[in-house]
Every structure is written in structure tokens, then in C-alpha cells.
Write a structure and sequence with these properties.
mainly alpha, two-stranded antiparallel ribbon, globular
């Protein structure tokens, strides 16, 4: 199926969302050399775009939180540098690769779609959590490693929710995506068109909130999964920036 020829708002908007983020990142970093020691947040405007986008999509956000998000734009005059800059470029490259495979790769099989979608969401959660924690790479690696307390997708979802980085709807959708990924990884006959996977896809709700519309009746399980993952990624892209701005500080001696 070529989503670009469907012509209905749900498909067009849902599949285009991560492409929009790719375009924003490309515009924000145009003319910025990879060897640069820093990126000016004010000049690239990237986090401002993501922060406002995330706040606007969060239907349940209070007026106060929205105002805080707007005020945050004015403080975005610091630089991304050092390890933050390295993580930024890794996330930048991964988003491009994700979109090309997940949305443009029309012949990609269902198993790859399920695994790629969950893998990039896991990466976005990792970036969000690392950006939010104190700037101590040695200690954060102990938590984020495979044997760490938040080294798994499931634990990262729980941590992001408990730290107030994601709302319940996003938490629940991420857990559903994890279940779908696991079913494809461990069951050869898994398919988006068969239960329980199709039923799980129908339980995904964040895309309805962020897009302010429900999936059309003819949407397949794979369609719903891909649109839902795209919308989750757009939200988490915003959280990656918000988390950096609200990074915890190491306690004074």
C-alpha cells in the first residue's frame, strides 16, 4: 500500500508525521557542520518546535503546563555541546534511518515493521531518560545498560511515566507496542491482520488524541500500528528536548 495515494486525512497526516520531524531536523541543522563543537538552540529552533508540538498534542495538558512550555522557548539560548551534542547527532541520524525504513520501505515485511517501530521508540525513551538524569555518564550507564534497572524497554516506559515525562495514554500505547513486538519476535505466524495483534492495534489510543481523529474503518492493523508509532515518536521527540532542559542537577556537597 502506498500511503501517499490514500488521500484521506488520517493516513496522510499519520504517516507524514515523522517525515515532518525529519524535515524540521534537516532545516534546523542546515549549514551546521558535523565537526562543530556546539549547536545554538536559539538558531536551530529545534527544541522550541518539539516542545510546543509535544505540549499542543497533549490534550489533557493544563493551561499552566502549556504556558510553561511556551515560556521555555525564551530560555532556549544555551548550547548543545559535548556528550549532549553526540547524542543529538545519533538521534538525528536514527530518525532519518527510521523514517526511510518504517514509512518509505513499502515492501518491508510486517515483522520488520513491528521490530523497527519498537526499537526506535526504545531509543527515544533512552535519550529522554539520559537527558533528564544528572550529567554523569558513568552512573547513568549503570542504570541504562542491559543489566541495569532501566535497561529494558518495559522498565524505561515505567521510569518515563513515574518521572512525569509521559502521560498514561502514551505509557499504555508503548506497552502495547512492546507486546506486539514480542509476539512478532517469538511467533512465526504472527500477523497484523490476525488476533490478538489486530485487537492490540485497536487499543492504541495516543494517535487519536494527537491527531484529533479516529482511524477510518478500512484501516488495517498494520496501518494503525504504523500511524500510532509515528505519533508516539513525534511526542517522544519533543520529550527528548524537554528532558534536556529540565535535567536534574547533582546535589550540592
Amino acid at each position: 500500500m502506498d500511503y501517499r495515494r490514500r488521500g484521506d486525512p488520517w493516513h496522510d497526516t499519520g504517516f507524514r508525521s515523522s517525515l515532518d520531524d525529519v524535515a524540521r531536523m534537516s532545516e534546523a541543522t542546515s549549514g551546521v557542520a558535523r565537526g562543530s563543537s556546539h549547536i545554538s538552540l536559539r538558531s536551530c529552533g529545534l527544541l522550541a518546535t518539539f516542545c510546543v508540538s509535544a505540549a499542543a498534542k497533549l490534550k489533557s495538558a493544563t493551561k499552566t503546563r502549556k504556558e510553561e512550555a511556551q515560556r521555555g522557548i525564551g530560555s532556549m539560548t544555551s548550547m548543545i555541546a559535548g556528550r549532549d551534542l553526540d547524542r543529538y547527532w545519533r538521534h538525528h541520524d536514527a530518525l532519518f534511518a527510521f523514517h526511510n525504513l518504517f514509512n518509505e520501505g513499502g515492501t518491508v515485511d510486517e515483522r520488520a515493521i513491528a521490530i523497527v517501530g519498537a526499537t526506535f521508540l526504545d531509543s527515544s525513551l533512552e535519550h529522554s531518560l539520559v537527558n533528564f538524569m544528572v550529567d554523569d555518564e558513568k552512573e547513568t550507564k549503570k542504570l541504562m545498560g542491559l543489566d541495569g534497572a532501566i535497561g529494558t524497554f518495559s522498565n524505561r516506559v515505567t521510569a518515563a511515566y513515574c518521572l512525569g515525562l509521559i502521560p498514561k495514554t502514551v505509557r499504555d500505547d508503548l506497552r502495547i507496542v512492546g507486546k506486539i513486538r514480542n509476539r512478532f519476535a517469538h511467533q512465526l505466524e504472527a500477523s497484523f491482520d490476525q488476533n490478538p495483534i489486530r485487537g492490540w492495534c485497536l487499543l492504541l489510543k495516543w494517535h487519536e488524541t494527537s491527531m484529533l481523529m479516529k482511524a477510518p474503518a478500512d484501516a488495517t492493523g498494520r496501518d494503525i500500528f504504523q500511524v500510532a508509532v509515528n505519533q508516539l515518536i513525534c511526542y517522544l521527540n519533543g520529550i527528548v528536548g524537554v528532558a534536556r532542559l529540565e535535567r536534574r542537577k547533582i546535589a550540592a556537597k
